[in-house]
Structure of Osmoprotectant transport system ATP-binding protein:
Amino acid sequence: MIAFENVTYDYPGVTALRDVTLSLDHATTTALIGPSGCGKSTLIKIAVGLLIPSRGQVRIGEQALESAHLAALRHRIGYVIQSGGLFPHLTARENVTLCARHLRRPAPWIAERFQALAELVRLPGDLLDRYPGQLSGGQRQRVSVMRALMLDPDVLLLDEPLGALDPMVRHELQQDLRALFDRLRKTVVLVTHDLAEAAFFSDSIVLMREGRIVQRGTHADLQRAPADAFVRAFLAAQQPLPPLHD
Ligand code: ADP
Ligand code: MG
């Protein structure tokens, strides 16, 4: 469904991705994980078309992601970022429906789709006419997910969507998002730096380091056969709770 082929990306003075080849099948969830600065957000921004690879290419379905038809392809991709990225001066409803209104979708279609999405992300109706500043962090992320799904994209990309939430809100949203991914059967890529979260959500985990993919597999694959010393160290760094002393 989405394929990166030998993708390299250079920021001025920094090579963020080095020859990344990765293919993600339809209706699978992939967790992208790795230390801060390893290139996760850059890879996602390339998939959304916000950045163009310095070398290599990306395909969505059969189409290469090139500037000529970027706008049309972008509508096939939903994107959620950690801070939500909602426009502060628009209500939740206005944020979610902005793009559909811009594309002149019929008002009844928009209203129906909006209602269905509000139910899908379990947001009570009385919150939908609030501004982002009047919502909690978890509620804002639910609105961001609605917005990303409004045009019914094939691909959903989430860049640390739960990173800014407190543990209980995060846990609740994890459960709801996983149920939603199972139900929608889209190609989902979720960035996290939490291995437990990666294992909870995904069919496969892609572990990155310094712009390269180090290993791809299930959590069990990584545990049983770590590709190198870095993978072992990364797994070891995911601390369990200390034992109780009583
Ligand atoms: P991650 O999301 O895994 O933390 P990023 O993709 O954000 O990593 O960044 C990868 C590398 O590219 C890092 O070294 C980062 O400092 C660098 N980088 C990211 N954005 C920019 C930018 N706009 N200009 C220059 N360097 C950047
Ligand atoms: Mg990032």
Remarks:
- Strands lie at 2-11, 14-24, 29-33, 55-60, 63-64, 77-81, 155-159, 187-191, 204-209, 212-217.
